Amino acid sequence: MDKKIKFTLAILKALPNAKEGSRDYYYDKKTPGFGIMVFPSGTKTFFLYKRVNGKPDKMKLGRFPEITPELARQRAYKDIADINKGINPNKKKKELRDEATFSELFQRYFDEHAKIRKRSWISDLGSYNRYLKVMDNKKISTISRSDIEKLHNSIKNKAGLYAANRSLSLLKIMFNKAAHWGFNGSNPAINIKKFPEVARDRALQPDEIGRFFEALNSETDLIFKGYFYISLLTGARRSNVLSMRWEDITFGETPEWRIPSTKNGEMHIVALVPQVIEILSELKKAYSSEFVFPSKTSKSGHLEEPKKAWKRILDKAGIKDLRIHDLRRTLASWQVRTGASSFIIGKTLGHKNQQATAIYARVSKDVARNSMEDAVNAMLSHTKVSTKTE
């Protein structure tokens, strides 16, 4: 039975079930081709019946009352617009069903790009797990600029503007890679501005350092305790410390840690002060792994996310607004307090310096070690606790 009616909530709700073995078709008086099918079970499905490329075709628009007549009509208009452009809506919807979800895009980006080409892949994985998984089940073509802007603001409110900006950068790269892999849609993250960032100068102060060491020594997990100690006493970047390997550490008269590749793309040698050697010795006795900070649950095999332990330690110490990266800045600030030059501090932290000659770099190695020892001793002078991890 085909019948033209006015599509309102009340009229559609009152439509009777079709007879067994058949279905009834009702068409909207307002929009040609826009109709609703009624089945014997009482199921009611909106559709659009039009000729597509010269052949009659039926496009399903959704079930009533899960969607309203107004929303179904909007979908019908969108399909009509596609048909007028020569696009088959059913084919388009099938391509969308077959298209990658956001989680599938991230996995490909991670496996084929980040893990292979980026030294900061751990940071990308952390941003995804903490802030972006909310979009996992979305088809990538359905993610709009508005979606990204809302997420960007949400992350800022939840975790701060730095985390929001890092996540936005990751999204831009991911959608650029999607285009490279054949995705025809536009990049929804493009032209969205980052939040203005202020250069951060936070570091542990003299009135905080003692409380920090006391809280750190009360931490019962040796992995986390050792990780935070070594982050502070070497000034190395978070990603490098997390993936620290025993094979890169040289013990002996002048113990060193050879970082194969840093953020600036170069190898960096870190002098290991006696307190770090003490910590490493304890960790080596406690764990058997290629990594200094092993993990049985992470894909990488090493520690990846120490934020819960970090919060626990800061709460015990009564310290606020301190980030893990601020430990790197803390070592540098205490080097300044003990008279180190900017060149020596840069050498300690692995900052790139194209002006340095090879002979000056060799001379500065011992100077950097002495500066680190002075800074560490100055920090430890504010507490009587030992650096031992047990």
Please render the helix and strand layout as text.
Elements: E1 2-5, H1 9-13, E2 24-28, E3 34-38, E4 44-52, E5 55-64, H2 69-84, H3 89-98, H4 102-117, H5 121-132, H6 145-159, H7 161-180, H8 206-218, H9 222-234, H10 238-242, E6 249-250, E7 256-259, E8 268-271, H11 274-286, H12 307-317, H13 326-337, H14 342-349, H15 358-380
Parallel strand pairs: 1-2
Antiparallel strand pairs: 2-3, 3-4, 4-5, 6-7, 7-8
Helix pairs in contact: 4-5, 5-7, 6-7, 8-12, 9-11, 9-13, 13-14, 13-15, 14-15
Description:
By secondary structure, the chain is an alpha+beta fold. The protein has helices at residues 9-13, 69-84, 89-98, 102-117, 121-132, 145-159, 161-180, 206-218, 222-234, 238-242, 274-286, 307-317, 326-337, 342-349, 358-380, and strands at 2-5, 24-28, 34-38, 44-52, 55-64, 249-250, 256-259, 268-271. The strands form 2 sheets. A 5-stranded mixed beta sheet has the order 1-2-3-4-5, covered by helices on one side. Strands 6-7-8 form a 3-stranded antiparallel beta sheet. Helix 13 packs antiparallel against helix 14 (342-349) and helix 14 packs across helix 15 (358-380). The chain is elongated and about 90 Å long.
